Amino acid sequence: MIVRKNMGLASPLVLVTLVLGFCFATYNLVTMIMHNRAISKWVEDDANGGIFFDPVIKMPENVRKPKNARLPFHVAVTATDATYSQWQCRIMYYWYKKKKDLPGSDMGDFTRILHSGSPDNFMDEIPTIVVDPLPEGLDRGYIVLNRPWAFVQWLEKATIEEDYILMAEPDHIFINPLPNLASGGFPAAFPFFYIKPADYEKVLRKFFPEEMGPVTNIDPIGNSPVIIKKDLLKKIAPTWMNVSLKMKDDPETDEAFGWVLEMYAYAVGSALHGVQHILRKDFMLQPPWDLEIGKKFIIHYTYGCDYNMKGELMYGEIGEWRFDKRSFLRGPPPRNLSLPPPGVPESVVTLVKMVNEATANIPNWEA
Fold first, then answer.
1. What is the mean pLDDT of residues 316-327?
2. Fewest C-beta atoms under 10 Å: which of 222, 296, 342, 362?
């Protein structure tokens, strides 16, 4: 009887202890996940070709902007004077103007940062500032290295009224009015499935020393699209530029990262300043892998879209129907491109329709 009585008294204490211990462990686990920015793997769904990413790192509650508060951002895109870059910028600027003043938009002014060193034929059509390219040969044929150097120059010489900046690219099309997804010291960025700092710890430790913490402190992003506070970008941009050049100068790093080297450089540069980004997978969609538009804000048409006439994806092959920006390296796409066959995803159909609308309304398109 005495034993049973003691057990009866002890059980609630044990239960409370277990519950508290469980809560404490759960809290530590969540804190660790948030601190290290643990990212679950991307999973490709064979059923519909979609790529999914979870979890999304959302804006901390204590820095959320008040409802109806407008925090405008300057839209900045780096570009060259090559025809391939020019026609993309013209389409991008057309859709920027269409979406800029719609409800829900925080888009401010627009600048094309032309890093070719001299004006081109579209200075009057697109608001443009000319900056210098890197010294000849320094980019080693990797022209993207000019991007951080272009931002460094622009931030030094331009008068930018907005407190925030969106770093964009010519092959971006605004599909919905874009609000400011950032706040204060928390920039907003799109997470790329192929930026995997944890897979390259040995290489990254050359640029991100151990005293800076685990390599998972490096976000799985590039510099675009990113919405960031102007003063913060002014601090990061020189570091981003220097890291880019050092990475390109290191054969092991250059081989490891290839065409995404500059993206890793921005991710490392921002992490060196202790900056973490709000990861927003709704920031952007990328046909043909993302199938629906939904509430996303930007179409990034970097991948070729190839389909047979049954509407089936033929990625890696030349499709019976195709849209690929690389088909138009030497001249702009013609007006009134043919629409995809039935069964092609909404994202691809929307992309072609938006290109067609822009080219139909931009004066002297094929000049």
1. 96
2. 342
